[in-house]
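Possible regression after last week's pipeline update?

I re-ran a chain I had predicted before the update to compare outputs. Posting the input and the new output here so someone can diff against the archived version. Not blocking, just want to make sure nothing changed silently.
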Amino acid sequence: MPTKSVGTIVQRWGPAVVVMAIIFLASSTPSKEMPSFGAIDFFVKKGGHMLGYALMALAMIRGMGQDKRHLFWVVLGLVIAYAISDEFHQRFVAGRSSTYVDVLIDTSGALIGYGGWTVSPWLKKATRLWMPS
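New output (post-update):
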Protein backbone atom coordinates (compact mmCIF):
# COMPACT_ATOMS: atom_id res chain seq x y z
CA MET A 1 0.00 0.00 0.00
CA PRO A 2 1.58 3.33 -1.05
CA THR A 3 2.15 6.01 1.56
CA LYS A 4 0.10 9.14 1.08
CA SER A 5 1.95 12.41 0.89
CA VAL A 6 1.34 15.15 3.44
CA GLY A 7 -0.14 17.27 0.64
CA THR A 8 -2.65 14.56 -0.20
CA ILE A 9 -3.70 14.22 3.45
CA VAL A 10 -4.09 17.99 3.82
CA GLN A 11 -6.06 18.17 0.59
CA ARG A 12 -8.42 15.39 1.64
CA TRP A 13 -8.89 16.38 5.30
CA GLY A 14 -8.42 20.16 5.07
CA PRO A 15 -12.13 20.89 4.56
CA ALA A 16 -13.08 18.82 7.63
CA VAL A 17 -10.51 20.65 9.75
CA VAL A 18 -11.78 24.02 8.48
CA VAL A 19 -15.41 23.14 9.32
CA MET A 20 -14.38 21.91 12.76
CA ALA A 21 -12.40 25.13 13.37
CA ILE A 22 -15.37 27.29 12.37
CA ILE A 23 -17.66 25.35 14.72
CA PHE A 24 -15.08 25.69 17.52
CA LEU A 25 -14.78 29.44 16.97
CA ALA A 26 -18.57 29.87 16.93
CA SER A 27 -18.80 27.88 20.16
CA SER A 28 -16.15 30.08 21.73
CA THR A 29 -18.31 33.19 21.36
CA PRO A 30 -19.74 34.35 24.72
CA SER A 31 -23.53 34.55 24.73
CA LYS A 32 -23.61 38.36 25.13
CA GLU A 33 -21.57 38.71 21.91
CA MET A 34 -23.85 36.45 19.86
CA PRO A 35 -26.29 38.09 17.46
CA SER A 36 -29.99 37.88 18.16
CA PHE A 37 -32.44 37.11 15.39
CA GLY A 38 -35.57 38.08 17.30
CA ALA A 39 -38.55 35.78 16.98
CA ILE A 40 -36.69 33.32 14.77
CA ASP A 41 -33.50 33.24 16.88
CA PHE A 42 -33.96 29.62 17.96
CA PHE A 43 -34.54 28.40 14.39
CA VAL A 44 -31.63 30.36 12.92
CA LYS A 45 -29.16 29.14 15.55
CA LYS A 46 -30.30 25.52 15.53
CA GLY A 47 -30.42 25.60 11.74
CA GLY A 48 -26.82 26.80 11.87
CA HIS A 49 -25.97 23.80 14.05
CA MET A 50 -27.54 21.46 11.52
CA LEU A 51 -25.86 23.11 8.54
CA GLY A 52 -22.45 23.08 10.19
CA TYR A 53 -22.65 19.41 11.09
CA ALA A 54 -24.08 18.48 7.67
CA LEU A 55 -21.05 20.15 6.11
CA MET A 56 -18.78 18.36 8.57
CA ALA A 57 -20.25 15.00 7.58
CA LEU A 58 -19.67 15.79 3.90
CA ALA A 59 -16.12 16.94 4.59
CA MET A 60 -15.41 13.74 6.53
CA ILE A 61 -16.78 11.64 3.68
CA ARG A 62 -14.35 13.50 1.43
CA GLY A 63 -11.49 12.90 3.83
CA MET A 64 -12.09 9.18 4.11
CA GLY A 65 -12.84 8.59 0.48
CA GLN A 66 -16.23 7.54 -0.71
CA ASP A 67 -15.92 3.82 -1.20
CA LYS A 68 -14.91 2.69 2.28
CA ARG A 69 -16.84 0.01 4.14
CA HIS A 70 -18.77 1.19 7.17
CA LEU A 71 -18.44 4.82 6.03
CA PHE A 72 -21.79 5.75 7.59
CA TRP A 73 -20.88 4.53 11.07
CA VAL A 74 -17.42 6.07 11.05
CA VAL A 75 -18.72 9.46 9.89
CA LEU A 76 -21.57 9.37 12.38
CA GLY A 77 -19.27 8.35 15.22
CA LEU A 78 -16.75 11.10 14.45
CA VAL A 79 -19.44 13.76 14.18
CA ILE A 80 -21.13 12.70 17.43
CA ALA A 81 -17.77 12.66 19.22
CA TYR A 82 -17.04 16.17 17.97
CA ALA A 83 -20.54 17.37 18.91
CA ILE A 84 -20.10 16.04 22.45
CA SER A 85 -16.67 17.64 22.77
CA ASP A 86 -18.08 20.91 21.42
CA GLU A 87 -20.86 20.90 24.01
CA PHE A 88 -18.30 20.19 26.74
CA HIS A 89 -16.20 23.10 25.46
CA GLN A 90 -19.22 25.43 25.64
CA ARG A 91 -19.52 24.81 29.39
CA PHE A 92 -16.39 26.98 29.80
CA VAL A 93 -17.61 29.88 27.64
CA ALA A 94 -19.26 32.83 29.40
CA GLY A 95 -23.04 32.60 29.27
CA ARG A 96 -23.06 29.38 27.26
CA SER A 97 -24.25 25.97 28.37
CA SER A 98 -24.14 22.44 27.03
CA THR A 99 -27.17 20.34 26.27
CA TYR A 100 -27.76 16.87 24.93
CA VAL A 101 -30.46 18.41 22.70
CA ASP A 102 -27.75 20.26 20.77
CA VAL A 103 -25.87 16.99 20.29
CA LEU A 104 -29.08 15.50 18.86
CA ILE A 105 -29.55 18.51 16.58
CA ASP A 106 -25.92 18.26 15.43
CA THR A 107 -26.38 14.54 14.79
CA SER A 108 -29.53 15.29 12.79
CA GLY A 109 -27.55 17.71 10.66
CA ALA A 110 -24.90 15.05 10.02
CA LEU A 111 -27.61 12.55 9.07
CA ILE A 112 -29.10 15.07 6.64
CA GLY A 113 -25.67 15.71 5.12
CA TYR A 114 -24.91 12.01 4.80
CA GLY A 115 -28.39 11.25 3.50
CA GLY A 116 -28.11 14.01 0.95
CA TRP A 117 -24.77 12.61 -0.17
CA THR A 118 -26.26 9.12 -0.66
CA VAL A 119 -29.12 10.34 -2.87
CA SER A 120 -27.62 13.34 -4.66
CA PRO A 121 -25.29 12.78 -7.59
CA TRP A 122 -24.36 16.48 -7.31
CA LEU A 123 -23.15 16.09 -3.70
CA LYS A 124 -21.21 12.95 -4.59
CA LYS A 125 -19.51 14.83 -7.40
CA ALA A 126 -18.87 17.87 -5.17
CA THR A 127 -17.14 15.76 -2.50
CA ARG A 128 -14.93 14.19 -5.20
CA LEU A 129 -13.79 17.48 -6.74
CA TRP A 130 -10.06 18.02 -6.37
CA MET A 131 -9.79 14.78 -4.40
CA PRO A 132 -6.45 13.12 -4.98
CA SER A 133 -6.48 9.38 -5.54
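Follow-up from reviewer: compared with the archived run. Residues 6-128 form one domain. Marking as no regression found.
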